[in-house]
Write a structure and sequence with these properties.
The complex is a heterodimer. Chain A is mainly α. Chain A has two domains: about 5-230, no CATH class; about 245-375, no CATH class. Helices cover about 70% and strands about 0% of the residues of chain A. In chain A, helix 3 packs antiparallel against helix 11 (about 290-305) and helix 4 packs antiparallel against helix 5 (about 135-160). Chain A starts with a helix and ends with a helix. By secondary structure, chain B is of the alpha/beta class. Chain B folds into two domains: about 1-65 and about 145-225, 3-Layer(aba) Sandwich (Rossmann fold), CATH 3.40.50.300; about 75-140, no CATH class. Chain B has a six-stranded mixed sheet, with helices on both faces. Chain B has a three-stranded antiparallel sheet with strand order 2-1-4, with helices on one face. In chain B, strand 6, helix 5 and strand 7 form a beta-alpha-beta unit. In chain B, helix 2 runs parallel beside helix 4 and helix 3 (about 95-110) packs antiparallel against helix 4. The longest helix of chain B has 17 residues, at about 155-170. The interface between A and B is medium-sized, with 36 and 33 residues.
């Protein structure tokens, strides 16, 4: 078992790389990825040489927002497989060792991920906010510690709670982490040591607090299930982007939905349009991963209210968001109807096109209101 | 009821997985498609269902026909309960409540699925999922059944029930296109057979016709042996 965790990490990266390779051939690399990298590099360099005017729209809260969002997008990895349960009785020590080592992996990886985010923010921090290198270091420690804590707490909640309780706990943790990031970022800029210390302590005691869950070999099937979910995450995303491919089913741990647990109907009337609308609403409202993404989207949009630019910039952002929302909505419908073995045979029905149009209109209305408010 | 004229079909351009597949399905007929693993049966079904990315040829369904497809691996909506699946199918197919509810209740009881009606089918055992798929198909009283490996995961009593159901559906006038590896059963219940080998039709017709085309004494003799 020596080096097993490292082998699994390497295998996991090879697997994800293999998935990417199926979609990215040399034409995509030459005509898309390399130009994007080149121009992004030039753009980043220009931020260092001459801070752009639009930096004036922002202040320290931009950095805080970026950090707060990065804290929320995190996954706790154990690299255990469901099949490992077969060896649990005879090799419990090794399984526990993998769990302990995976804690170190999560720690190191969080620092690396946060480091990348901070490097991207550096021109803004150094050239515009004029913070010291000590503050940058404090920000890195504070943000990475928050990220580790977030990862651990979200995973802990998933292991401990089910149904409504899980939803509630995840929402509370998300809100606390998101809001909590702001004072820590402020402190790292102005009182660097004060920002670092409490988080270092929290990070140190976290594994002890979560010993019976995150590091528990008894939860091996849960660890394996979550790992399977992560492993197929990228491939599912790619499937969901292709209209030709059926969406693979998700790994499920609960047998009943957490919302409308007794299959209650939303619409009184019965008909194809109501059926499609009900399918869409129930499917996405019950999908925790989706609601989590939506919450992040609204959180980011709400927080970006601090920095809304004036003039045409505002209208461009609103139009861009409206267009993006309609595109995402189209993709969501495709997953349920066009790409699905059950829904596929209804993809040419009038009712389907009508319901899609109605949903598009509904999501565009708030953006129209924003635009009208601007002109008034 | 169903006319299939496939020149070629594939998942990747210019690399045909199936070619020259031509057959028809009549009303009240049970057409069994057989072949070894990887012969092209499921690809043919995908082509019929419009799920094959590259297809040359045509698949013609009788106008306004109501059909049901039962895939080899049962597929459900991740977040819908069994009851909601039934409700969705009934509503989108505009079935009158007085018609579909008693029918659903009867089959739920026969398949012993009543106690899990408010649960997510994705968490059912394989056999229960297969039964749930059958139940969804039964709800619409289809005129055409397209079934891929119906016996997989079913317990003996469910197989018996399924065979009885097939017989009843055939008597009602429904056409059935079925892929299976259970050749003994296929011999007994099939009206006509299509043998697929290496992506094309190697023989088709009644049992006697396909056996004589292959010079075999039973359907096992029509399937190329694994090397």
């Amino acid at each position: 078992m020596k080096g097993l965790l490292l082998t699994r990490i390497r295998k996991d990266y090879n697997y994800q790389y293999g998935i990417l390779k199926t979609a990215i051939d040399w034409t995509v690399i030459v005509y898309f990825i390399l130009p994007v990298l080149f121009f992004t590099g030039l753009f980043y360099r220009s931020l260092w040489i001459e801070p752009p005017d639009w930096f004036n729209w922002f202040d320290w809260r931009l950095a805080a927002l970026v950090i707060a969002l990065s804290v929320l997008s995190s996954r706790w990895r154990t690299f255990l497989y469901e099949a490992d349960s077969v060896f649990l009785i005879k090799r419990r020590n090794q399984v526990e060792l993998i769990l302990k080592k995976s804690f170190i992996y999560n720690l190191v990886f969080s620092f690396m991920e946060t480091g990348i985010v901070i490097v991207l923010l550096l021109p803004f921090l150094i050239n515009f906010l004029s913070v010291s290198w000590l503050s940058v270091f404090a920000l890195w420690i504070a943000a990475a510690s928050l990220r580790v804590s977030g990862k651990a707490l979200f995973y802990f909640s998933w292991l401990r709670f089910k149904g409504w309780a899980l939803q509630a706990v995840v929402i509370v943790i998300g809100i606390v982490l998101f809001i909590g990031a702001f004072p820590f970022v402020w402190l790292s800029f102005y009182v660097p040591f004060a920002a670092m210390l409490p988080l270092i302590i929290l990070m140190a005691i976290l594994p002890v607090l979560l010993k019976n869950s995150l590091l528990s070999a008894n939860r091996i099937l849960d660890h394996g299930l979550k790992e399977r979910e992560y492993k197929t995450r990228l491939i599912k995303k790619m499937f969901s982007m292709s209209y030709e491919v059926e969406t693979p089913p998700k790994a499920k741990t609960r047998s009943k939905p957490w919302l409308f647990g007794y299959s209650q109907k939303i619409f009184k009337n019965a008909g194809p349009k109501q059926a499609l609308a009900e399918l869409f609403i129930k499917h996405y409202a019950r999908d925790r991963e989706f609601t989590y993404h939506i919450m992040r989207f609204f959180g980011a949009s709400g927080a970006s209210g601090f920095f809304v630019p004036t003039g045409w910039g505002y209208l461009i952002i609103v139009s861009f968001l409206a267009f993006g929302t309609v595109m995402v909505l189209g993709q969501m419908w495709a997953q349920l109807i066009d790409q699905h073995a059950i829904g596929g045979k209804y993809k040419a029905r009038d009712a389907y096109f009508k319901v899609r149009r109605i949903f598009n209109l509904i999501v565009i209305v708030p953006y129209l209101i924003f635009a009208v408010i601007y002109f008034i | 009821m169903l006319k299939v004229h496939i020149q070629s079909g594939s998942y990747i351009p210019n690399q045909s997985t199936i070619q020259h597949i031509h057959f028809q399905l009549q009303q009240g007929e049970l057409l069994v498609m057989i072949g070894s693993n990887g012969a092209g049966k499921s690809t043919t079904l995908k082509a019929i269902m419009g799920q094959l990315p590259f297809l040359e040829g045509e698949v013609v369904f009788q106008k306004n026909i109501r059909y049901s497809f039962i895939p080899e691996r049962p597929v459900f909506y991740d977040e819908l309960t069994l009851q909601e699946h039934l409700q969705f199918i009934a509503d989108i197919e505009e079935l009158p409540e007085a018609e579909w509810k008693p029918r659903a209740k009867m089959w739920l009881e026969k398949f012993q699925l009543m106690k899990v009606i408010h649960e997510l089918p994705g968490t059912f055992s394989k056999g229960m999922q297969q039964k749930a798929m059958l139940l969804l198909a039964l709800l619409t009283k289809p005129s055409l059944w397209i079934i891929d490996e119906p016996f997989m995961g079913l317990d003996p009593s469910a197989v018996k029930l399924f065979m009885k159901l097939i017989e009843e559906e055939r008597k009602r006038g429904a056409g059935i296109l079925m892929c299976t590896h259970v050749l003994d059963t296929a011999e007994k219940i099939g009206d006509r057979f299509v043998i697929i080998a290496e992506g094309t039709v190697s023989a088709q017709g009644t049992l006697e016709e396909v056996l004589s085309q292959h010079g075999a004494t039973d359907l096992y003799g029509c399937i190329p042996e694994a090397e």
